[in-house]
């Protein structure tokens, strides 16, 4: 585990944080907090990504590229969080909304 994960230190700027209504509804229906998911994203817990995608996120954080997280919240619900390369915004959405 990296020091940033242990300390919960943000790795990058989020910019304006927005979410689609469908993503917010899905999170609320499961009794979860969107802020908890955002915290995981910004501190380097990218959820259900494979090793290659996690490695790409490490590069993205250092190089100023887009950062992507995917969280499987239930058997039927997955949430994506995407921070744009210019760090102007972070979006929570369902995969079918991309």
Structure explained in plain terms:
There is one protein chain. This protein has helices spanning 3-7, 21-29, 34-42, 51-63; strands at 16-19, 67-72, 78-83, 89-93. By secondary structure, it is an alpha+beta fold. It has a four-stranded mixed sheet with strand order 1-4-3-2. β3 and β4 (89-93) form a beta hairpin. The termini are far apart.
Which key phrases capture this entry?
alpha+beta, four-stranded mixed β-sheet, 4 strands, 21% strand, disordered N terminus
* β-sheet strand percentage: 15-25%
Low-confidence stretches: 1-5
The global form is globular
Please tell me the total number of domains: 1
Q: Give the helix level as a range of percent.
A: 25-40%
Describe the SSE topology:
Layout: H1 3-7, E1 16-19, H2 21-29, H3 34-42, H4 51-63, E2 67-72, E3 78-83, E4 89-93
Short description:
The chain is an alpha+beta fold and 98 residues long.
């Amino acid at each position: 585990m990296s020091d940033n994960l242990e300390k919960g230190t943000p790795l990058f700027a989020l910019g304006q944080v927005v979410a689609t209504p469908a993503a917010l509804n899905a999170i609320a229906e499961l009794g979860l907090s969107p802020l908890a998911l955002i915290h995981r994203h910004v501190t380097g817990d990218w959820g259900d990504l494979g090793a290659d995608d996690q490695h790409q996120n490490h590069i993205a954080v250092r190089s100023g590229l887009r950062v992507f997280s995917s969280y499987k919240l239930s058997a039927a619900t997955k949430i994506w969080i995407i921070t744009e390369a210019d760090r102007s915004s972070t979006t929570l959405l369902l995969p079918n909304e991309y």
